[in-house]
């Protein structure tokens, strides 16, 4: 029952939410879409008309410019536009027209607004363009003396195309033949524009009613609902009065058809009805699968939580709820108590205790070894200096004084070197040194270090041979890296056979530079290879001060290489020992 409980809850909740949301969308479309779109459309046309009137008045357009702008307005806003006086008489030339130039040079403007209402498709198919020769039968209007002659066509004929319009009686119609010099027609997508509807509106609305005339005198924009009597189409007429620079009042009249909005809304209502029925079934199906999808992992988590009571895994914080999620919450809560209290606290304390004990023992051992080794290393030179100083005090023979002074100075220098190494090691281990990295060739650094050890090399008759393959510069602290090379060379010289060769190979690629140093001599015991990096460690069991050094050189080298993030190792060869360092370019 519990497993069905969460599934059923999710299913019902999902169905209710989706149905409410889906129903609100459909209901809003059915009830408010038409009014919203009509208001949006009218507001858009109204704003465009106000911009048109502002430019028309301020820029004092010519009749030709006004006609052009009217065509642009109608194309962009899908509305008809004209300019009339307060009596309703047109002051704007017909925006849609063609101008013919006769053989004698006279111009005739052929008005097309009414003609397009009846023969728009035929006119479009005729593809009339500039340069075409037309013969037009119609009625001439020559009332305007200074303006071109206007013809209202009955029939238009173009060679190669069928005649457009009604048959005419030549005795009752005027005939004009000429070449098209101007063509103002709607865009391809706007050939259904019914400019004649505008003139029907003018005939019905003018003369204006007293209330409308008062608004015109007050220069107020007015919107009039108008239904075309023949077809019953619903339209919105916007009248915007303007005052020209000549002081005359003219009316910008725009007619916007709202019939398409009504037809679209009616179709949408039927569409949403079918869509709602189909959507309801889809919501139920999706809600079922959604609830199953969500509840299935929750049920699995409930079983997992019960296993977690036995400390099988760890989980996040529990959530309280009266269903499977509630069971999961209780199980997680119990798991948290058992796991956090019984395991985490105990394990953390044990681990911390062991770590503290190991660290304490290691630190004590390191301190004891350090003090023991340091005191041992310092005790020997101090004893020698003391004994030789007492000899000088007791008046040793003059022939031995120089030797005693040399021994005292030599032991003092050894002690100074030991103290310097101890200080360097302490600084390196404390990480208080700031590396000053530069780019340099490793072979140059090794050559420089070898020159400092020339006497040690001659003493054992040793040669240092450096071989490099496509060597690239490395980026490191040159001073500290020289100390590494010196320590490696000193160790190699100390344990090399007399008369042998110390070989150094340097190889570079795009990513790394490898340094390999080999000498010929005794191997390092395998069980002590890891100990050579420890402080005060000497390879000789006798810990001879003459050959074993201070025991700090390789410890210092290790700290320097670690600070440079280098990889390094030491390994035995058949006849010697090899040191390897990997530098990252």
From TrEMBL:
PROSITE patterns: HAMP (PS50885), HIS_KIN (PS50109). Residues 292-344 form the HAMP domain. It is a multi-pass membrane protein. One of its GO terms (cellular component) is plasma membrane. SMART domains: HAMP, HATPase_c, HisKA. GO terms for molecular function: ATP binding; phosphoprotein phosphatase activity; phosphorelay sensor kinase activity. It catalyses: ATP + protein L-histidine = ADP + protein N-phospho-L-histidine. The keyword Cytoplasm does not apply. One of its GO terms (biological process) is cellular response to phosphate starvation. InterPro entries: BphY/WalK/GraS-like, HAMP_dom, HATPase_C_sf, HATPase_dom, His_kinase_dom, HisK_dim/P_dom, HisK_dim/P_sf. The keyword Transmembrane helix applies. Residues 373-585 form the Histidine kinase domain. CDD domains: HAMP, HisKA. This is histidine kinase. It comes from Rossellomorea marisflavi. The lineage of its organism: Bacteria, Bacillati, Bacillota, Bacilli, Bacillales.
């Amino acid at each position: 029952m519990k497993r069905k409980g969460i599934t059923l809850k999710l299913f019902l909740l999902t169905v209710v939410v989706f149905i409410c949301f889906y129903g609100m969308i459909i209901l809003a479309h059915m009830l408010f879409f038409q009014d919203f779109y009509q208001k949006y459309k009218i507001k858009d046309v109204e704003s465009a008309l106000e911009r048109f009137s502002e430019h028309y008045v301020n820029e004092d357009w010519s009749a030709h410019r006004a006609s052009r702008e009217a065509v642009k307005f109608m194309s962009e806003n899908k509305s008809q536009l004209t300019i009339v006086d307060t009596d309703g008489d047109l002051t704007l030339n017909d925006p849609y027209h063609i101008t013919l130039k006769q053989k004698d040079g006279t111009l005739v403007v052929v008005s097309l607004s009414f003609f397009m209402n009846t023969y728009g498709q035929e006119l479009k198919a005729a593809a009339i363009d500039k340069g075409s020769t037309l013969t037009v039968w119609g009625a001439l209007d020559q009332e305007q003396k200074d303006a071109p002659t206007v013809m209202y066509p009955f029939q238009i004929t173009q060679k190669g195309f069928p005649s457009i319009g009604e048959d005419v009686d030549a005795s009752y119609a005027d005939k004009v033949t000429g070449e098209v010099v101007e063509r103002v027609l709607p865009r391809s997508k706007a050939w259904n524009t019914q400019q004649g509807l505008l003139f029907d509106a003018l005939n019905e609305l003018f003369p204006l009613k007293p209330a409308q005339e008062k608004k015109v005198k007050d220069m107020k924009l007015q919107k009039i609902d108008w239904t075309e009597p023949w077809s019953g189409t619903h339209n919105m007429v916007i009248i915007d009065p303007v005052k020209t620079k000549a002081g005359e009042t003219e009316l910008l009249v725009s007619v916007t058809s709202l019939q398409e909005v009504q037809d679209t809304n009616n179709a949408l209502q039927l569409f949403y009805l079918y869509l709602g029925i189909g959507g309801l079934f889809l919501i139920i199906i999706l809600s079922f699968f959604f609830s199953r999808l969500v509840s299935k992992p929750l049920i699995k988590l409930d079983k997992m939580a019960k296993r977690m009571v036995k400390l099988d895994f760890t989980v996040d914080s529990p959530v309280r709820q009266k269903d499977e999620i509630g069971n999961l919450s209780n199980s997680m809560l119990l798991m948290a108590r058992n796991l956090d209290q019984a395991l985490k606290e105990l394990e953390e304390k044990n681990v911390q205790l062991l770590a503290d004990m190991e660290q304490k023992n290691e630190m004590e051992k390191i301190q004891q070894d350090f003090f023991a080794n340091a005191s041992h290393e310092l005790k020997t030179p101090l004893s020698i200096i003391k004994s030789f100083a007492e000899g000088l005090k007791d008046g040793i023979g003059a022939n031995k004084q120089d030797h005693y002074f040399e021994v005292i100075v030599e032991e003092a220098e050894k002690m100074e070197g030991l103290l310097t190494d101890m200080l360097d090691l302490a600084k390196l281990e404390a990480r208080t040194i700031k590396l000053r990295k530069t780019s340099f060739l490793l072979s140059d650094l090794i050559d420089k270090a070898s020159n400092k050890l020339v006497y040690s090399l001659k003493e054992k008759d040793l040669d240092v041979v450096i071989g490099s393959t496509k060597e690239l510069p490395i980026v490191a602290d040159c001073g500290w890296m020289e100390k590494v090379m010196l320590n490696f060379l000193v160790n190699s010289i100390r344990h090399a056979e007399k008369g042998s060769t110390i070989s150094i190979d340097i190889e570079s690629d795009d990513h790394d530079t490898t340094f390999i140093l080999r000498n010929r001599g005794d191997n390092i015991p395998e069980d002590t290879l890891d100990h050579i990096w420890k402080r005060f460690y000497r390879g000789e069991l006798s810990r001879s001060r003459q050959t074993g050094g201070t025991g700090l050189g390789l410890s210092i080298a290790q700290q320097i290489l670690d600070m440079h993030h280098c990889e390094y190792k030491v390994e035995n060869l058949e006849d010697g020992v090899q040191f390897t360092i990997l530098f990252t370019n």
